[in-house]
Specification:
CATH topology: Purple Acid Phosphatase, chain A, domain 2
Shape: globular
Order of helices and strands: HEHEHEHEEHHEHEEEEEEEEEH
Structural class: alpha/beta
Keywords: Hydrolase, Signal
CATH superfamily: Metallo-dependent phosphatases
Helix content: 25-40%
Signal peptide: 1-25
Enzyme class: hydrolase
Protein name: Metallophosphoesterase family protein
Domain Calcineurin-like phosphoesterase: 36-238
Radius of gyration: 23 Å
Number of strands: 15
Strand order of the largest sheet: 3-2-1-13-14-15
CATH architecture: 4-Layer Sandwich
Strand content: 15-25%
Number of helices: 8
Distance between the termini: 60 Å
Largest sheet: 6 strands, mixed
Number of domains: 1
Length: 334
């Protein structure tokens, strides 16, 4: 009798799950599969030396890689300031990456990739660039690739020490790179993700003089001629939780990537415990670690803030794809 009642109750429960109140069978729920997923990091600042601060850097990078593993990104972008420019720093970063997901990596140079010159007078910009290309197998410093019909363009600051007194930590791009960018970007109308370590002037937060791209006007004039560009920057370390870090301007979406190593919070007034740099006042939280996670669908791009320090999601920003017919054709043949 007990077996009969148990079977009867199980049958009722199954019926309740499969039948709607109107007596119609419930339709199966279809989960939309994204075309592409990628993680976008910046300012990891990995260093090889084993003292307290470099250990914190390596620990945060390691944890961020482990944190994104469950979401199965197709690849990883690190948009500058991977390290402090020494060969052993870059080797340390690669070894951590290999041990924690071994993601396909698309890196860009930042200003800190040139920093070994402050330690070694025999080092220079050309050696720094050659080392970066050799370390990551890049044919040239700036490059592009297509993934599932989306276009990815990775730009790079090309000079540091010879111009440091004039431009500080800003990005300087050669005319050759800017001409390449124009030709490469406008050759396709696919949705395009552009990466440059330093932000463009007056876009995301903390674009003070000596921080952003010297050739902002030229780059912006080119980018706004394309139907759909999402422009990612790092360098400022401003937290992805700040409302300043997703900006729509000239038809372009500008997105700040925060920092895996040390995001900062912009504040209006300086008080005890806050740092001051130029006209920007900010607060550092040594515990935090942040990045972005991007998902591409046929009709939209979803950009989510990832807070590695507590393994949670922050705000998300949805961008509807333009030129849908042209986009669909490319995506369907990708």
């Amino acid at each position: 009798m007990r077996r009969f009642l148990a079977a009867f109750l199980s049958s009722l429960m199954l019926s309740a799950l499969l039948v709607q109140p109107n007596g119609l069978a419930r339709e199966s729920v279809q989960i939309e599969t994204p075309l592409l997923k990628f993680a976008a990091f910046s300012d990891t600042h990995v260093m090889d030396a084993w003292n307290i601060d470099p250990y914190k850097r390596t620990h945060k990078f390691t944890h961020a890689l482990r944190d994104i593993k469950a979401f199965q990104p197709d690849f990883l972008v690190i948009n500058g300031d991977l390290s402090n420019g020494r060969e052993q720093d870059l080797k340390r970063l690669k070894s951590i990456l290999k041990a924690n997901g071994n993601y396909r990596l698309f890196p860009s140079m930042g200003n800190h990739e040139y920093y070994y010159q402050w330690e070694n007078s025999k080092w220079n910009d050309e050696k720094a660039k050659a080392q970066f290309q050799q370390m990551f197998g890049l044919k040239q410093l700036y490059y592009d690739h297509f993934e599932k019909g989306a276009h990815f363009i990775h730009l790079s600051p090309e000079q540091y020490m010879p111009m440091q007194k004039q431009i500080g930590e800003a990005a300087w791009l050669s005319d050759k790179q800017i001409e390449w960018f124009e030709k490469t970007l406008l050759a396709s109308q696919a949705p395009t993700f552009v990466f440059l370590h330093q932000p463009l002037d007056n876009t995301v937060g903390k674009t003070d003089p000596g921080v952003s791209a010297v050739q902002t006007e030229k780059l912006l004039a080119i980018a706004k001629r394309h139907p759909q560009v999402v422009w990612f920057s790092g360098h400022s370390h401003v937290s992805v939780t700040s409302p300043t870090e997703v900006v729509e301007k000239e038809g372009i979406t500008f997105v700040g990537l925060g920092s895996v190593y040390q995001p900062i919070e912009l504040v209006k007034k300086r008080s005890v415990g806050e740092a001051n740099q130029g006209e920007s006042s900010f607060r550092v939280d040594q515990f935090k670690s942040e990045s972005r996670f991007v998902t591409l669908y046929r009709d939209r791009i979803v950009i989510r803030a990832r807070l590695h320090h507590n393994n949670s999601w922050g705000d998300q920003h949805v961008i509807r794809l333009k030129r849908q017919k042209a986009v669909d054709k490319r995506l369907s043949t990708a």
